[in-house]
Amino acid sequence: MRELQVWKFGGTSLGNGELIRNAAKLVAEALRTRDLVVVCSAMGHTTDRLMAVADAASKGDAQKAIETVRELREEHLKACREAVDDVDVRREVESFVTARTEELEKVATSASLLREVTERTRDLIASFGERLSTKIFWGALRSMGVDAVYLEGGEAGIVTDDAFGNANPLMPLTAQLLRERLGKLLSDGKVPVVTGYIAANRDGVTTTLGRGGSDYTATLIAYSLDAKEVWLWTDVDGMMSADPRVVRTAKVLRRISYEEAVEMAYFGAKGLQIRTILPAKEKGIPIRIKNTFNPGAEGTVICDSTDKEMGVTKAVLFTRNVSMLTVKGDVLKGGALSARVLAVLEQLKVVPLMISQSVSSASISVVLPRPMTDIVVRGLEREVIGELGGGELEVERDVAAIAVIGEGMKGTPGVASRVFTAVAEKGINVRMIAQGSSELNISFVVKERDADEAVRAVHEAFIG
Ligand code: ADP
Ligand code: ASP
Ligand code: MG
Known about the structure:
Layout: E1 4-9, H1 17-30, E2 35-40, H2 46-58, H3 62-83, H4 87-114, H5 119-143, E3 148-151, H6 153-156, E4 159-160, H7 173-187, E5 191-195, E6 198-201, E7 206-208, H8 214-225, E8 229-234, E9 255-257, H9 258-266, H10 274-283, E10 287-291, E11 300-303, E12 315-328, H11 334-347, E13 354-358, E14 363-369, H12 373-388, E15 392-405, H13 415-424, E16 432-435, E17 441-447, H14 451-462
Parallel strand pairs: 1-2, 1-8, 2-5, 3-5, 4-6, 8-10, 9-11
Antiparallel strand pairs: 6-7, 10-11, 12-14, 12-15, 13-14, 15-17, 16-17
The structure holds adenosine-5'-diphosphate, aspartic acid and magnesium ion.
């Protein structure tokens, strides 16, 4: 029996027609030795630009929305010419690109007239990126003689709830449908080529799995078909010990555990969604991160066990996209105050990245995703400050959260002191500290302007 793998190509690996052709060539060659399901992201920054189409339409700026759609049409038609050799197949892909972008123009025009883009319409607009790129990828494979079949996420079997913008797959239905539909194609000797990121609700309305969701599409498929491995093809050699754009000496991690990957995802490593890891972890399916620009490199394996040789800490990561709220209450005792604050977060379904409380001075600080700041502030003012008729709320939006991550930190004394010495030596003020209960990470908050320097100092102290 040939081994089944799921290969997902990120937008960076599909930036133009030439790159799509290269990626398709990797698939065609690999098919000699294994079965594959292919998942594609949108080309380059297409999704950002589709979001800009939605934003323009919501302001009634039809001209800008349509202009962007037409640019995208031209770029995708150019990519067709570069990636798809077979004339008949190319004609089919070109008419698909033309028809879909005309449809998108109509959606953008209607939304502009209404000056309204609901979350549902935004998902529809965003879905065009993956549809176009995946069809071109399909065409490139067909031209290479591969018996590829194009499928949109919903057609493949991914059924979600109605949480437009960040929908949740309904399991076990999704697993069952993916297994039936893709399994049938594979047993007929075909190669399914599936749009990442997009899915459909029970009524067949398009939904999306949230930004960066194509990786999740891949692990969902692997889970459902009991694939042997998932390969996420990207533009770096693997998961690295820091964001390579910030730390030039960042190193590729050869092997990390699922738990470490989850911690890293929390802090934005490789734009991974946390839930990407979960289906793979549940079935023990290794995820390999590979570089399309350097396919010979081994990449990183995310699996059950970690690489002990890497030392105590594996990575130093940070996210700017957070804010810190501190609630101080004179009246209440610390414990009751914390309970109230956490209840508000729970009610608003906001998951804090960090929590730190001081019982004696009756204060609690929480670090949250920055886009949630306003709604949480309103909630706290209403439910905590207003209700109690006292207390104080401090809001800091210009902060970044930094995490030092590694399984080796369990039971190794002195890690925290080395972290904070490295930061203090740079004269950087630490605003808050928390150690995760898993002992897989120590995290702290600094002013946003100090984040790069703090990350470099800690990386240098532990990793080099
Ligand atoms: P793709 O389009 O393949 O999904 P992403 O842009 O989502 O790729 O993620 C890859 C990028 O993530 C890399 O180009 C790199 O700059 C960035 N990145 C940030 N932190 C890390 C990290 N710790 N390890 C690897 N890449 C990282
Ligand atoms: N194209 C989508 C995004 O940019 C999904 C993905 O790339 O994973 O978020
Ligand atoms: Mg990504």
